Fold this sequence. Notes:
Elements: H1 6-21, H2 28-44, H3 51-70, H4 75-108, H5 123-139, H6 149-157, H7 159-162, H8 170-177, H9 185-221, H10 228-259, H11 277-281, H12 286-297, H13 307-325, H14 329-355, H15 362-381, H16 385-396, H17 405-412, H18 419-435, H19 439-444, H20 461-477
Amino acid sequence: MLFSSPVFIFGFLPIVLLLLFTFFKSSKSLQKYLLIFASLFFYGWWNSNYVALILFSVLANFIFGYLVLTQKNPSSFKWMLAGVGFNLILLGYYKYFDFFIENLNFLFSSNFSLMHIILPLGISFFTFQQIAYLVDAWKGEIKKENHKFGDYMLFVTFFPQLIAGPIVHHKEMMPQFAKNLKLNIDYFLAGCSLFTIGLFKKLIIADSLGPIANNVFARADAGETLLAVESAIGVLAYTFQLYFDFSGYSDMALGLGLMMGIRLPINFNSPYKATSIIDFWRRWHMTLSRFLRDYLYIPLGGNIKGEARRYVNIMITMLLGGLWHGASWNFVIWGGLHGLMLLFNHAWLNVRKSMQLKGLPKVLAVVITFVAVAMAWTFFRAETFSGALNILKSLINPEMYWVDLDTIKSLLASNKRKIEFTLGIFAIAFIVTFFLPPASPYHMRYVEEMRPKRNSFKPDIWHMILFIVLWYIIVRKAGVSNEFLYFQF
Length: 489
């Protein structure tokens, strides 16, 4: 069930909200189990067979968590390692088993059959979330009396963030789940507005640019020779498609949480405005960056064991972060490229500090970072290594810098719409990306607990127009929305 589908917007969501704030409003226990049931129903809509898998994962991790919390070291540490190992084995089987067999066959000319395992939705996200919980339990950050099955199950399965994040911490969610959820008009209106913006990003911008990117990358993977301008349009289309697809999902997830009075952590903060690769990773998939930092980079030694070891740790973290995104060497290469760019970025900062040099002008720094990120996305999107190279070769080959207007017009119209519409979408994407404030931080600042009431969310004429656009979008795009790209990871 997609957030952008009519069945979710007009069926599932209204029913859940109605039950939550009417029939179930007087009991936090009833609210909790309503949300658990709704979340499992939401998860099973795609493939009911995998409901048993997530239940098994939750139950096993709850038991591991109990053993970690009730045992003293070294037994507690051993149970934590066992729980982490269990999660990695489960993730490895479903996500990487066929990838392992493919590479085994390639290296040893063997002929082992692939199992063609269907990747369960959200397994990468709820696996990391539970690993973090076990590690935090071992560190003593979770009290034994707070380790309750209902709270834990809702923590893992809460449907707004179940499929593609954000990857939440127990300390962010458990205190909220422990309270009786009441309809807060400020939260609800801010949530509706944020959900609407995310829906627009997904349906109108991301899904409109997808066919252009698909056209170019499919031809590149097939070995077709591309003009430089075709590759540039394809890379730019995917760069914005992924941005608005994931940004749209993140906005919708946070918006759904706010409708129910739940504050999820911000996961997306205008990453293409970043002035460096370091800054990019502070803005893109922020909760994944936090997880990789806290549960991989720092345990490896972080930056406390010398500069050389720091660079090694960064590289290991980014390579594994790339592999987390998918069972393909292209993802590993993408992670490695970002690792190399981070190393260069840190080295450049050291040179600047030692020589007391000024940094690049902000606009130039943003442009350089954006181009570097866009080029790296080529490996992220291409199905094959040769396809990514085809794209990059055409961009650096002077012989391909001639323009075939008919080819370009055909490419821009590949989504069966007028060229003017496609150019308009590119223009909107550019303006929203670089000149408008990020939607999630803008809305979430109205619902911070410590802010005075005068900053409550007050919809104006622009919000009314936005909701009218929502209805227009649903009527025009009903039933034609594509899956979110991060569903694949």
